Amino acid sequence: DAGVIQSPRHEVTEMGQEVTLRCKLISGHNSLFWYRQTMMRGLELLIYFNNNVPIDDSGMPEDRFSAKMPNASFSTLKIQPSEPRDSAVYFCASSFTGTGEKLFFGSGTQLSVL
Amino acid sequence: GNSVTQMEGPVTLSEEAFLTINCTYTATGYPSLFWYVQYPGEGLQLLLKATKADDKGSNKGFEATYRKETTSFHLEKGSVQVSDSAVYFCALMSPNAGNMLTFGGGTRLMVKP
């Protein structure tokens, strides 16, 4: 299995533009987590899904952020409009236990909003 | 609420030195404890875990013992290598928090030849 696949690896955009980050889960996994990593705040859980259903989105910073799972193997995280303070590395991770145990992380998307 | 506190980095060591990265936690109930490692340019990977008091997790020469009396889960390795240079994250998972992981802030380890 190729593991959790994220795209793009790097995204540079201008303030106000829409940004879409993509994530493909490992086949057979049923839970999906989106994290944001910054120097100031470390690793923050934004949202997680179980069996395609959003379970907890309390970590989503603002209404500008939205996440979807259109099917069992794919997820998107959208920021609209983007702001410079959104600059961070965004990771998605999947698991097959339905919990946070044994997460498999993607390589992340480095987002820079100018 | 649950929280994890790690020693601040960076930790800089010479090859073959002994490593300790301190981790303490606050949690209700009986959490499981984890160490994840993040190599440059990659996502986090599970390094080891322990699910109950006095359990010792081990992998790739790294060890950590679940100490309930001191609420600690310190990471140790007897002889580090340059390839161990990475960021190490301590984490806990508690049934009282929906079985989600709570991560510490991470500790960067730099090993010099």
Number of helices of chain B: 0
The percentage of residues in β strands of chain B lies in over 45%
Question: Which value, in Å, is the CA radius of gyration of chain A?
Answer: 13 Å
Strand content of chain A: over 45%
Question: From the alpha-carbon coordinates, what is the Rg of chain B to the nearest angstrom?
Answer: 13 Å
Spans of at least 5 consecutive residues with low confidence of chain B: none
Helicity range of the residues of chain A?
Answer: under 10%
Count of distinct strands of chain B: 12
What is the distance, rounded to the nearest whole angstrom, between the alpha carbons of the first and last residues of chain A? Answer: 36 Å
Number of DSSP helices of chain A? 0
What string gives the helices and strands of chain B in order? EEEEEEEEEEEE
Which spans of chain A of ≥5 residues are poorly predicted at pLDDT below 50?
A: none
Describe this structure in words.
The complex is a heterodimer of chains A (114) and B (113). By secondary structure, chain A is mainly beta. Chain A contains no helices and eleven strands. Chain A has strands spanning 5-7, 10-13, 19-24, 31-38, 42-50, 53-56, 65-71, 74-79, 88-95, 104-105, 109-113. In chain A, strands 2, 4, 5, 6, 9, 10 and 11 form a seven-stranded mixed β-sheet that branches. Chain A has a four-stranded antiparallel β-sheet with strand order 1-3-8-7, with no helix packed on it. Chain A is globular. The termini of chain A are far apart. The mean pLDDT of chain A is 92. With 113 residues, chain B is an all-beta fold. Chain B is 0% helix and 50% strand. Chain B contains no helices and twelve strands. Chain B has strands at residues 3-6, 11-14, 19-21, 23-26, 32-38, 44-50, 56-59, 62-65, 75-77, 86-93, 101-103, 107-112. In chain B, strands 2, 5, 6, 10, 11 and 12 form a six-stranded mixed β-sheet that branches. The radius of gyration of chain B is 13 Å and the shape is globular. Chain B starts with a strand and ends with a strand. The model of chain B has no long low-confidence stretch (mean pLDDT 93). Chains A and B meet through β5 of A and β5 and β6 of B.
